[in-house]
Write a structure and sequence with these properties.
Number of helices: 12
Helix content: 40-55%
Number of strands: 13
CATH topology of the largest domain: Ribosomal Protein S5, domain 2
Strand content: 15-25%
Number of domains: 2
CATH class of the largest domain: Alpha Beta
Order of helices and strands: HEEEEEHEHHHEEEHHHHHHEEHEE
Largest sheet: 6 strands, mixed
Distance between the termini: 15 Å
Structural class: alpha+beta
Shape: globular
CATH architecture of the largest domain: 2-Layer Sandwich
Length: about 400
């Protein structure tokens, strides 16, 4: 985690020399449960020890926000009453979360804020959710007497993405950032919002991300296409079973999926097949963790990668290549993490195989693609909190 003094020195320098309160929120990993949140399924995230740190203080104005992005060396001032809000994309997260907290009854006035992050950008660790959660935590403390619940802060972060940043995301990223707990992963039911902490202390193993440092831009909207495929299957199952209530694939069985296979076409069938399988795999990982069976966890991770690559079709050549290297090196489990088409693999590696795996992956990837993957060791950390 970053040093408080690093953020504080910039806060003092760029504003009026006074100090405020310091807050932090983490990025996240997701062990298993991909593309399941919008299908009403389960996800299995954990907060990491990297994230966003912000110093904040009320500045005595009615609605003027003075914001400094330390990493970008960019200063933006704006009014919360301005219906258009700031143009800078990073400042829109501050503007959006402030307005969403106001909707929850927090009397947000003008404030100063300086923030920095050490969560890697573009690696699928949700730096945007870390920002929203951090800013919400600060505004709740400074102006709201901490009366807004953790769940409402999660939903305020999601609403910020939807209403001010143009991203129609689920709730996993904000949930993990707010509710994270050191040494624990969390199983979240995206339909009921019930969740449970699972101790994650893999003696003899470690989690590591390999970032391919590629992002493929695809024509059209691949995320929406897959969402539509899933909704189409649900619609056909509902038509066949008018007596039932089918809101998402979570409500559907394998038998019902097979009944509509011919009608929905092979592409939609394969995508729904992945989602139903992923629901079962998340529950399988929970059982394996309770039994301390990390080999089983790894086996299920490989199955998820295969499904994401062949059935859901969100992988790419580079990620499949990293997954193949993991298999060759005897890595316990490996899969794409995140939406796909680039980004990271998440790998569960035995300690004695770690050095050889990283060296081999760097060498082979560089030989084939002309650059090394970035390596991020994962430490499971705490969620949003006030530091001082």
């Amino acid at each position: 985690m970053m040093e408080i003094d690093f953020v504080r020195s910039r806060f003092i320098k760029h504003f009026d020399g006074k100090t405020g309160n310091v807050y932090a929120s983490p990025g996240r990993i997701n062990l298993i449960g991909e593309h399941t949140d919008y299908n009403g399924g389960f996800v299995f995230p954990g907060a990491v020890d990297k994230g966003i740190m912000a110093e904040m203080r009320a500045n005595g104005t009615e609605d003027t926000v003075m914001a400094y992005a330390i990493d970008l060396k960019d200063r933006v001032d704006f009014k919360l009453s301005d219906p258009d809000g700031p143009r800078a994309s990073w400042a829109r997260y501050i503007y959006g979360i402030a307005l969403e907290m106001k909707k929850l009854g927090v009397p947000v006035k003008g404030f100063n804020i300086a923030f920095a992050g050490d969560v890697p950008l573009g690696a699928g660790m949700s730096s945007s959710a870390a920002m929203e959660s951090c800013f919400a935590c600060g505004l709740n403390d400074i102006f709201g007497e901490n009366k807004v619940s953790q769940w409402d802060m999660v939903l305020a972060g999601q609403a910020t993405e939807h209403n001010y940043c143009g991203v129609n995301c689920g709730i996993m990223d904000q949930f993990a950032s707010v509710f994270g707990k050191a040494g624990c992963l969390m199983r979240l039911d995206c339909r009921s919002r019930e969740f449970e902490y699972f101790p994650f202390k893999p003696d003899g193993y470690r989690l590591v991300l390999l970032d391919s440092v590629v992002k493929h831009q695809l024509a059209g909207s691949p995320y929406n296409d897959r969402r539509n495929s899933c909704e189409n299957v649900v619609k056909h199952i509902q038509a066949k079973h008018p007596e039932g209530k089918f809101e998402t694939l979570r409500d559907c069985t394998w038998e019902q999926l097979d009944e509509v296979r011919a009608e929905v076409g092979e592409e939609d069938y394969k995508r729904a097949k992945f989602v139903l399988g992923e629901k079962d795999r998340v529950l399988g990982v929970c059982e394996a963790l309770n039994e301390g069976d990390y080999e089983k966890v790894g086996e299920l991770m490989y199955q998820t990668h295969e499904g994401l690559s062949k059935d859901y079709e969100v992988s790419c050549e580079e990620l499949d290549f990293l997954n193949d290297i993991a298999k060759e090196c005897g890595v316990t489990g490996s899969r794409i993490m995140g939406g796909g088409f680039g980004g990271c693999t998440i790998n569960l590696v035995r300690n004695d195989l770690y050095k050889n795996f990283i060296a081999t992956a760097k060498q082979k990837f560089n030989d084939k693609y002309g650059h090394e993957p970035k390596v991020y060791d994962v430490v499971i950390g705490d969620g949003s909190r006030k530091l001082c």
